[in-house]
Amino acid sequence: MNQPIKAKHQRLVLVLVALAALIGAAMLAAWGLRSQASYFYVPADIAANPPEAGRAVRLGGMVEAGSLKTDADGVTTRFVVGDGKARVPVTFKGIRPDLFKEGSGVVAEGKLGADGTFVADNLLAKHDEKYVPREMAGMTAEQARKTVEETR
Amino acid sequence: MIANFGLAALWLAAALAALQLLAASLALTGRGSALGAIIRPVAITQGLLTTLAFIALLVLFCQTDLSVKLVAENSHSAKPFLYKFAGTWGNHEGSMLLWVTIMGLAGGFVALVERRLPEPTMIATLAGQAFVSLGFYAFLLLASNPFERLDPVPVEGLGLNPLLQDPGLAFHPPTLYIGYVGLSIAFSFAIGALITREVGPAFARAMRPWVLGSWIFLTLGITAGSYWAYYELGWGGWWFWDPVENASLMPWLAATALLHSASVLAARNALRAWTVMLGVVAFSMSMVGTFLVRSGILTSVHAFAVDPTRGSFILALLAINIGAALTLFGLRAASVTEGERFALTSREGALVFNNVMLTATLGIVLVGTLYPLLAESMGQKVSVGPPYFNPAGAMFVVPMLLVLAVGPLLRWRNDSLRRIRPELVVIAALLLGSLAALAFFGVPLLPLLGLALAAVLAVASLLPLRGRKLRTVKLPLWGMVVAHFGVAVALLGMASDSAFTTERLVAMKVGDKVAVGPWELKLDSIEPVAGPNWTALEAAIEASYQGGKPDLLKPQARQFWSPPQATSESALDTRWNGQLYAVLGEQAEDGRWQLRLWWKPFVPMIWYGGLLIALGGVLALLGRVSSDLRRLIARDKIAYRRQRQGR
User: Fold this and answer.
1) Mutate which of A6, A124, A134 to test chain B, going by most B C-beta atoms within 10 A?
2) I want to staple B479 with a disulfide (CB 3.0 to 4.6 A). Which of A71, B379, B594, B620 is the partner?
3) Between residues B271 and A151, which one has the greater pLDDT?
4) End-to-end CA distance of chain B
5) pLDDT score recorded for residue B298
6) In this complex, do A95 and B372 lie within 8 Å of one another by their Cβ atoms?
């Protein structure tokens, strides 16, 4: 390998190496996306076809009025997310986002526990009128008002 | 008045860009060689006009002229002056004007100073620049006019998103934009070189300072953005694989690859077609980034526009520019002649490996960023995060960093590993030693690899200086050593953050104490405080490191009133060996306060590393520019002497 390779071959070798690496990257990406992408669920989806326990997913819906409670440790929050069709209990350990409140929309990132409780690692709430989480955009129009009224 | 003036300047600049493209195409096809002479002055004037338009908008924002729609929607008379000023680019239209301004200035600057390339290549380059600019002028003037007026004039403006009211905003977007848009020059050089078939070392030397300059700004912009997210968002993380972050990382990866392949082309006349291709890819990634960030298809503080016509406009621009460039590449690539040959074990071989790995990483990031959008267009909502990016990226970054330890020690063209055996032994021993030591302490896999590689790289990056007199080492070599050392430093910070961080989440009464790693914290008080356009609750926390003299930390929960929005301001205590990070949460029903606390050993190394990498770029740039200048002056002297002798 210490002699310069023949001119004709060099370009071929380089192209093949680059191609092999890119195909490797593509296969790795496909595999990674299949196993690691986290899917978005609304409570009705979870009721109909729950994700396997322990898989990273996102749950979006409205925080039901009157469901928000803080545990004795002062940092664990429990609430129920609903979409008008189904309800999912959620626990979250951490500081709640600034605009998180009952009757407003939320997207929770986390895993569904074996007991059917959703364990959230992170909560995404509405920043303000202009910055609505994308996943909630479709819901607020159709389901939000109804959901809020139903749970009030 | 000022608004009309700014708009007129912008239209005029757009007209000049059209003239520049027309004159250049005529000159290149040989139908108006006299027109060639006007192209450079036109490019320079165009740059000045865009600057005038931008200054006009700055003035409007500083005066809070509410008759301008953009100002009324994004500013407020009670806002601190810095944010009136920086608010100019804290919105969609203003930031696109900044983009166009930098593009105009870069084009003008290259027209002013670049004299090394054959004139036809320069004309083709400026034609390329005008072509790309025209698209962005059209976007600005037709779909996002920053100077639109309001009638009747509102009494007060709506204010700026409080998350953006931070000193970081004043510098982060312009820095990143200079990086993004600077790459348009590399793109235009690549187009120019393809059109005139002048792909060679001269092209690489002309392009390199532009790539270096853009890359320095991109590095600084990413570093600053990461630090901003770290302290402003209050989540204690420094990188979230957010699409907006990826949008800045992708051009950086491409520019890093381009930087290294341009070095091969300049020094050895190899990797010709590949370098041109990367020139096209790098700016394409800037445009993809702009599309992702500015089209409103993403949720983020960066996504100002939620207007579908704008999204499709940028998408069309993207398709036209990238499509045209790739078609040109496809037509001309075969006629770009084969470069010089080299052995696999050589500096070129190592750099090819680096390039392939960087490109593969770029591919991983690109796929992970676009996949959720594709999935959503097929009706499935998906998010892709660290569980995908971290392992998939590491598959390519780890081998690249291993080769980075060895590559700079190799000679150009042909070398043998036997020649550098002592260095190899040191590197291998260090790698195995640190891997074993860390595995013994049970560090998880990715941080383990990161820490071991950081140790290896910190030493290996200095090895190219071995056996040289430090005083005679040239600036570009210093640049390489400093930048590679910076990679090691940043890696140390990243790996330490995930390996050694201690987190505590507590609810405390005033007077309570809590321990976080080596720190002892006491909540002294919670007091209301007020700022110019916000009120806040401020905690006073006494923090003492291993029983030493306590520091006072003051995290706040802020409430802005225009627009009404709450943010949490974290408090940081930095020591040489890490950072204490405190966030104040809500008050629970029983009167206790939520506090989230982190002790993050060595985490500031991430940003020091980023700064070192940028400093390496600055040293290399200074070295290249000064040697270019010296060569230019020498050439002028010779020409002058010849002229006198001829007389």
Assistant:
1) A134
2) B620
3) B271
4) 57
5) 63
6) no
Considering only alpha carbons, which residue of chain A is nearest residue B306?
A: A130
d(C-alpha B434, C-alpha B452), whole Å: 5
3-state secondary structure of B264: helix
Domain borders along chain B are 1-163, 502-601
Q: Which class for B330: exposed (0-12), middle (13-18), buried (19 or more C-beta within 10 A)?
A: exposed
Q: Which tokens hold the place of B524?
A: 């002294």
Residue of chain B whose alpha carbon sits nearest to that of A14: B352
DSSP β-bridge partners for residue B521: B514, B543
| Residue B216 identity | I
Residue where the block lists tokens 């301004």: B101
Low pLDDT (below 50) residues in chain B: 300-301, 303-305
Neighbours of B163 (CB within 10 A): 18
d(CA A48, CA B611) in angstroms, rounded, equals: 51
CB contact under 8 A, A98 and B565: yes
Could you give the CA distance from residue B289 to residue B294 in angstroms, rounded to a whole number? 8
Q: What is the ipTM of this complex?
A: 0.74
Residue A129 reports pLDDT greater than 50: no
Q: Residue B357: beta bridge partners?
A: none
pLDDT of residue B133: 95
How are beta strands A87-93 and A118-125 bridged, if at all? parallel
Residue A28 near chain B (CB below 8 Å) = yes
DSSP B442: T
- d(CA A62, CA A70) in angstroms, rounded, equals 18
Identify the H or E element spanning A125. strand A118-125
Which structure tokens are listed for B494?
Answer: 């990243």
Chain A nearest C-alpha distance from B599 (Å): 16
Q: Give the C-alpha separation, B311 to B305, whole Å.
A: 8
How many Cβ atoms sit within 10 Å of the Cβ of residue B204?
27
Q: Do B564 and A7 touch (CB under 8 A)?
A: no
**Measured between alpha carbons, how far is B416 from A51 in angstroms, rounded to an integer?**
54
Question: Cβ separation of A10 and B342 shorter than 8 Å?
Answer: yes
Name every chain A residue with its beta carbon within 8 A of the beta carbon of B338. Answer: 7, 10-11
Q: Please give the C-alpha separations between residue B433 and each of B124, B409, B488, in angstroms, as whole numbers.
A: 54, 21, 17
Query: Which value, to the nearest 10 degrees, does the dihedral of the CA atoms of residues B212, B213, B217, B219 take?
Result: 10
Residues with Cβ within 8 Å of residue B499, at least 6 apart in sequence: B443, B444, B447, B448, B450, B451
Query: Which residue do the tokens 């590993």 mark?
Result: B417
SS3 B487: helix
Q: Considering only residues 55 to 94 of chain A, which have any Cβ-Cβ distance to chain B shorter than 8 Å?
A: 56, 58, 70, 73-75, 93-94
Measure B17 CA to nearest chain A CA, in Å. 35
Please, what is the angle between helix B2-28 and helix B36-63, to 10°?
A: 160
- Are the beta carbons of B488 and B454 closer than 8 angstroms? yes
* Dihedral angle sign, alpha carbons of residues B331, B336, B337, B339: negative
pLDDT category of residue A140 using cuts at 50, 70 and 90: very low
Closest CA to B372 of B239, B243, B252: B243
A16: helix, strand or coil: helix
* Cβ(B73)–Cβ(B152) below 8 Å: no
Closest chain B C-alpha to A69 CA, distance in angstroms: 10
3-state SS, residue B265: helix
Give the angle subtended at the CA of B371 by the CAs of B370 and B372, to the nearest 5°: 95
Strands B593-601, B578-587: pairing is antiparallel
Chain B residues whose beta carbon lies within 8 Å of the beta carbon of residue A5: 341, 343-344
The 3-state DSSP class for residue B158 equals coil
